Amino acid sequence: MTTTVPTADTVPPPNGCGRCEIALPHGWQYTPAAGLHQWTPPTQGQILARMKARRERRLTVKPVYHATTRWAASSNPEATS
Ligand SMILES: [Zn+2]
After folding, report:
1. Of 10, 11, 24, 34, which is the most buried if we count CB atoms within 10 A?
2. What are phi and psi of 37, to 5 degrees?
3. Is residue 29 a contact partner of residue 37, using CB atoms and an 8 Å limit?
4. Residue 24 lies in a domain
5. Distance 31 CA to ligand 1 centre (A)
6. What distance in Å separates the CA atoms of residue 18 and residue 43, rounded to the nearest whole number?
7. Residue 50 forms part of a structural domain
8. Ligand 1 center–CA 6 separation, angstroms
């Protein structure tokens, strides 16, 4: 059995747009599903689901061995470096 670990790309930020999940700054965006729109506040249910998905990702990501420095790379998917 394999489990799908959501990547940072598949887990939208909690305060991402309620219609298209794009984070701020949003401006005017066009997506085929949502059409042309401005940022729409996400519902409390959307925020909770996104926070749970991000937490699940943090708990399931394994540290990756870094071949050059021999240090374990950060397992935090939200870290930029
Ligand atoms: Zn949007």
Report:
1. 11
2. -160, 165
3. yes
4. yes
5. 8
6. 7
7. yes
8. 21
